[in-house]
């Protein structure tokens, strides 16, 4: 079975490639600079839960292990060759489901340039065309307007609302659930995004 990993994806000035140990310095610098901006959306460990990796190296080790097992795809996002964030395909389920979820975060310095819609479109296209997945889901806090704009630009429809869905920023938080199947976007997400961008400029 082709898991579609490892892989590098690129469009314009946006490149996605496997997260690696040598990203440590750039990753820490971006996270430190964006700490206040990212904290409200960061996953946390609920009381009694399993501890999150304590270091960047242990985080990468866990993500790479999941990737080898076909359970995830941890992408680093680069803009003009500089580390700028992550898109992670999580919770890959095979068998009759062929399903996964996607999470993402971005350096505020490059926000508003269409980087994350492009990155997510590239990843979804890869999941559908190369990894053989059928459905991709994105869970977003209702207050996270930046993430909501990403799914709106991509035309991913909202399918539900999940109260106290994930432990984020120290508490169980409600999430809006968005999903898309391969049948809903036969032309591909990147083509859809490019088409909508052209229409908005006309």
Provide a concise account of the structure shown.
The chain contains 6 helices and 8 strands, in the order ββαααβββαβαββα.
Written overview of the protein:
- The protein is α+β, with helices and mostly antiparallel strands and 202 residues long.
- The protein has one domain (9-201): Aminopeptidase (3-Layer(aba) Sandwich), CATH 3.40.630.30.
- It contains 6 helices and 8 strands.
- The protein has helices at residues 24-33, 35-38, 56-68, 115-129, 145-154, 189-201, and strands spanning 9-11, 14-18, 73-79, 82-93, 99-106, 135-140, 157-168, 171-181.
- It has an 8-stranded mixed sheet, with helices on both faces.
Write the topology of this structure.
Elements: E1 9-11, E2 14-18, H1 24-33, H2 35-38, H3 56-68, E3 73-79, E4 82-93, E5 99-106, H4 115-129, E6 135-140, H5 145-154, E7 157-168, E8 171-181, H6 189-201
Parallel strand pairs: 5-6
Antiparallel strand pairs: 1-2, 2-3, 3-4, 4-5, 6-8, 7-8
Helix pairs in contact: 4-5
Shape: globular
Count of helical segments?
Answer: 6
Total number of distinct structural domains = 1
N-to-C terminal Cα separation, in Å?
43 Å
Query: Can you identify the CATH superfamily?
Result: Gcn5-related N-acetyltransferase (GNAT)
- Major β-sheet annotation: 8 strands, mixed
**What is the fold named in CATH at topology level?**
Aminopeptidase
Q: Helical content, roughly?
A: 25-40%
- Give the neighbour order of strands across the main sheet: 1-2-3-4-5-6-8-7
Structural class: alpha+beta
- Strand element count: 8
Any idea of the CATH class?
Alpha Beta
Taken as a percent bin, the fraction of beta residues is: 25-35%
Question: How large is the radius of gyration?
Answer: 16 Å
Order of helices and strands: EEHHHEEEHEHEEH
CATH architecture identity: 3-Layer(aba) Sandwich
Low-pLDDT regions: none
């Amino acid at each position: 079975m082709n898991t579609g990993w490892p892989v590098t994806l690129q469009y314009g000035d946006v490149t996605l490639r496997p997260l690696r140990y040598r990203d440590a310095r750039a990753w820490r610098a971006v996270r430190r600079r964006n700490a206040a901006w990212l904290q409200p959306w960061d996953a946390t460990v609920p009381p009694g839960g399993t501890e999150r990796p304590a270091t960047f190296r242990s985080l990468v080790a866990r993500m790479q292990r999941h990737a080898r097992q076909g359970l995830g795809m941890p992408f680093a996002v680069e803009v003009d060759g500089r580390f700028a964030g992550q898109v992670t395909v999580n919770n890959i389920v095979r068998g009759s489901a062929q399903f996964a979820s996607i999470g993402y975060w971005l350096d505020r310095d490059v926000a508003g340039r269409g980087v994350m819609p492009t990155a997510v479109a590239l990843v979804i296209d890869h999941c559908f065309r190369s990894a053989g997945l059928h459905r991709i889901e994105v869970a977003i806090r209702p207050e996270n307007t930046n993430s909501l704009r990403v799914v709106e630009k991509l035309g991913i429809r909202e399918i539900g609302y999940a109260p106290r869905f994930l432990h984020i920023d120290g508490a169980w938080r409600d999430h809006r659930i968005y999903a898309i199947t391969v049948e809903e976007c036969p032309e591909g997400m990147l083509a859809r995004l490019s088409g909508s961008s052209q229409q908005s400029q006309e």
